[in-house]
């Protein structure tokens, strides 16, 4: 039984250590259940606040809490965050040097740790288990518990043996946590971890702070740039289906001045780690990735997730979009949806040999298509897929915010049907649109389709409008696109009824582009103050070698920029300010806020929202001369040769500085530096033989570059750092 005393204890730790006033739904019950020594199985979406569910009991209960986590990078983040709150935590995994590992074990054995994060294979080694049996343990927490299941999306063989823990340590309460929404996987986890009797806590899987948007994919790069315009300086992830697309898009974004980096499984491990780290530390703002990116990154302030291509399934879509907005602040998930992608996936599925598997794949694809083409609340469709009902339309998706107007399109449907019948043969949607619009391209003339009655019959609509109509007619079942016949448009039985039943065919009006109705994030916060606080946070993070969000989250800074606390007591009232952080960072923030309030009379100035910060203060990873070069470039606007002359060194030396500057995540306008040949060089590098050595690649370029300039171009292409 959860006693009143337990609740009081739990609330006190929540406030004093983590700086939060109230528990989120289910957290308190879960904490008390564990304080009571009982097992639990926690199903909570990403960002729901799972960590606190075991961290608080581990702090309160006697002994050390053992946390099993699949990823080394996550362990480090969690331990950093806990340490910043004054909690005695450590991790034990293969990334530690021998001396460090020894130190951790000593602290553990001396009973000095509240929490110890361990990789599963370490935990289950004989020697470690023997140690555990001699020590006082407060609980086991199995984070990312779906890794134990082969059904799930992230099976890890080393998780399988965790089921043994229940037998070896019958008296230590165990908690399994996952954000998987899939029922199959949930059952499997419970079996494998022997948690059939554990109490289950199932939170709603709705992520109300994520706004779902779907836009027709037309010019993805332009659409994405337009979208990014609405999120200046925000962190986000863009998912693409192939490595090639990832790389192309990353380079394109960089050319448009976005601090973007590419991430996929083909990039060597060390570079990938660096990209992750740069993202976590806000040096890189936008990650362009294949689905390989995500699990290892626990960044709370990801403001948007974009799907450049169709996700594999609703499950993947939910998981991937779920990486936005873990901190609970407004976030957006944008999917660019194109029928070309659907056809591509259909073709791939047709090649699947196994019939059952093919059926599953078809079903997954159809659900994804249905979601994308929904004309009802997206959140309803999404949660409905996982068996959760939503009473009301959500009010925070593109459909709710901007319900599509419909109109009687019967006449258009008639013309389209007539045209498809007239062309007789395997012609795709694009061709039909061309005929309707009266195009006289070579193919149409060759086929004599410029003589048809319907040729030009639809020239009062533009091509986008016609495409939209034809697509919807396909969605409504009047036509099919036969994949085996190059996506030919074929009328179905239902098409025979077009125009005959007297019942109008209502279609959604075509809307060019996509509209956004974004209540701007932090509309009420003092934006200049917020910026100052962000800069201060960055400075402290740099000094303490921590990711900025570990110092204070965006939520905390937003609240500070709204309420402007100028005393310890007031600062305590800000979400995320616990006693330890108050002690460590409070003074600096109070000083910054007081100074701001004095100079502005506390008036809130309007935010221009567009300004790109000029990061000149000691660039991360730069030495003094490099920093000086950067300042000359940025502040004084000197050219390469001017900087070299001014410093009395060769241009080659300055180019080396430039490379370091780019590597450190700062912007240098390399395209301008190279001039008109830039695009040619990029294209040739794209086409270069992936196995060729750098000197071979350089030799084959049609443009002559000296070594330092070449290295600069490569650094730029690596995608690290463009402001
Ligand atoms: P999950 O592991 O479920 O994805 P986290 O444990 O990382 O979620 O928590 C998500 C965010 O919510 C973190 O920034 C965390 O500090 C914050 N958080 C958790 N519980 C609370 C709470 N009771 N009040 C305010 N913020 C909270
Ligand atoms: Zn909705």
Give an overview in words.
By secondary structure, the chain is an alpha/beta fold. It folds into 5 domains: 4-202, P-loop containing nucleotide triphosphate hydrolases (Rossmann fold, 3-Layer(aba) Sandwich), CATH 3.40.50; 210-401, P-loop containing nucleotide triphosphate hydrolases (Rossmann fold, 3-Layer(aba) Sandwich); 406-508, Winged helix-like DNA-binding domain superfamily/Winged helix DNA-binding domain (Arc Repressor Mutant, subunit A); 527-611, HRDC domain (DNA polymerase, domain 1), CATH 1.10.150.80; 624-717, Arc Repressor Mutant, subunit A (Orthogonal Bundle), CATH 1.10.10. Helix content is 46%, strand content 11%. The chain contains 33 helices and 17 strands. It has a 7-stranded parallel β-sheet with strand order 3-4-2-5-6-1-7, with helices on both faces. Strands 8-13-12-9-11-10 form a 6-stranded parallel β-sheet, sandwiched between helices. A hairpin with a 5-residue loop joins strand 15 (479-482) and strand 16. Helix 27 crosses helix 29 and helix 29 packs parallel to helix 33 (707-717). The longest helix is centred in the C-terminal third of the chain and has 22 residues, at 579-600. The protein is globular, with a radius of gyration of 29 Å. The two termini are 55 Å apart. The model is unreliable at 514-522 and 604-619 (pLDDT under 50). Adenosine-5'-diphosphate binds at residues 20, 23-24, 27, 44, 46-52, 300, 326-327, 553, 575. Residues 377-379, 393-394, 397, 399-400 line the site of zinc ion.
């Amino acid at each position: 039984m959860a006693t009143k005393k337990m609740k009081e204890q739990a609330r006190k730790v929540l406030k004093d250590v983590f700086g939060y006033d109230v528990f989120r739904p289910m957290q308190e019950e879960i904490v008390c259940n564990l304080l009571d020594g009982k097992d639990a199985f926690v199903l909570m979406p990403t960002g729901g606040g799972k960590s606190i569910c075991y961290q608080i009991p581990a702090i309160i209960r006697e002994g050390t809490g053992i946390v099993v986590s699949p990823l080394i990078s996550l362990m480090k983040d969690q331990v950093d965050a806990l340490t910043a709150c004054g909690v005695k935590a450590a991790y034990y995994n293969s990334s530690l040097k021998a001396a460090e590992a020894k130190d951790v074990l000593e602290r553990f054995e001396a009973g000095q740790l509240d929490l110890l994060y361990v990789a599963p294979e370490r935990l289950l080694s004989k020697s470690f288990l023997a140690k555990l049996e001699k020590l006082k343990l407060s609980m086991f927490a199995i984070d990312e518990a779906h890794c134990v299941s082969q059904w799930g999306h992230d099976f890890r063989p080393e998780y399988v043996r965790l089921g043994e823990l229940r037998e070896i340590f019958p008296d230590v309460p165990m908690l399994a946590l996952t954000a998987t929404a899939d029922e199959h996987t949930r059952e499997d986890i419970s079996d494998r971890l022997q948690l059939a009797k554990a109490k289950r806590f199932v939170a709603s899987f709705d992520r109300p702070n994520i706004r779902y948007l779907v836009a027709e994919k037309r010019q993805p790069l332009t659409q994405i740039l337009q979208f990014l315009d609405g999120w200046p300086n925000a962190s986000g992830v863009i998912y693409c289906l192939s490595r090639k697309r990832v790389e192309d898009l990353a380079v394109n974004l960089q050319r448009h001045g976005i601090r973007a980096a590419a991430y996929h499984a083909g990039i060597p491990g060390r570079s990938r780690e660096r990209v992750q780290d740069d993202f976590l530390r806000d040096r890189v703002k936008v990650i362009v990735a294949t689905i390989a990116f995500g699990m290892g990154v626990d960044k709370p302030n990801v403001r948007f997730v974009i799907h450049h291509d169709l996700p594999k399934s609703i499950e993947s879509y939910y998981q991937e979009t779920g990486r936005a907005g873990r901190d609970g602040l407004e976030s957006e998930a944008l999917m660019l949806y194109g029928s070309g992608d659907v056809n591509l996936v259909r073709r791939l599925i047709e090649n699947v040999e196994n019939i059952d598997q093919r059926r599953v794949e078809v079903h997954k694809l159809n659900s994804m298509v249905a979601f994308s083409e929904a004309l009802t609340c997206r959140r309803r469709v999404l949660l409905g897929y996982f068996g959760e009902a939503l009473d009301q339309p959500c009010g925070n998706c593109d459909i709710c915010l901007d319900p599509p107007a419909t109109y009687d399109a019967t006449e258009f449907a008639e013309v389209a049907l007539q045209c498809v019948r007239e062309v007789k043969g395997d012609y795709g949607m694009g061709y039909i649109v061309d005929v309707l619009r009266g195009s006289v391209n070579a193919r149409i003339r060759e086929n004599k389709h410029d003589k048809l009655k319907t040729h030009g019959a639809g020239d009062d609509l533009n091509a986008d409008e016609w495409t939209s109509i034809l697509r919807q007619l396909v969605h409504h079942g009047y036509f099919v696109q036969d994949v085996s016949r190059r996506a030919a448009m074929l009328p179905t039985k239902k098409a025979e009824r077009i125009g005959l039943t007297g019942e109008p065919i209502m279609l959604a009006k075509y809307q060019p582009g996509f509209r956004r109705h974004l209540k701007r994030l932090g509309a009420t916060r003092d934006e200049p103050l917020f910026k100052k606080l962000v800069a201060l946070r960055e400075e402290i993070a740099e000094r303490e070698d921590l990711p900025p969000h570990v110092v204070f989250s965006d939520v905390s800074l937003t609240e500070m920029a709204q309420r402007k606390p100028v005393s310890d007591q007031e600062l305590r009232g800000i979400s995320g300010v616990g006693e330890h952080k108050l002690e460590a960072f409070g003074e600096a923030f109070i000083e910054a806020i007081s100074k701001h309030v004095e100079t502005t009379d506390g008036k809130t100035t309007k935010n221009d929202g567009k300004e790109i910060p000029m990061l000149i203060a000691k660039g991360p990873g730069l030495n003094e001369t490099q920093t000086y070069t950067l300042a000359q470039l940025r502040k004084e606007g000197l050219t390469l040769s001017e900087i070299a002359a001014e410093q009395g060194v060769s241009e080659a030396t300055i180019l080396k500085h430039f490379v370091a500057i780019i590597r450190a995540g700062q912007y240098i306008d390399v395209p301008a530096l190279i001039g008109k040949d830039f695009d040619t060089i990029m294209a040739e590098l794209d086409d270069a033989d992936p196995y060729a050595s750098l000197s071979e690649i350089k030799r084959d370029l049609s443009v002559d570059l000296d070594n330092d300039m070449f290295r600069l171009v490569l650094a730029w292409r690596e995608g690290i750092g463009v402001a």
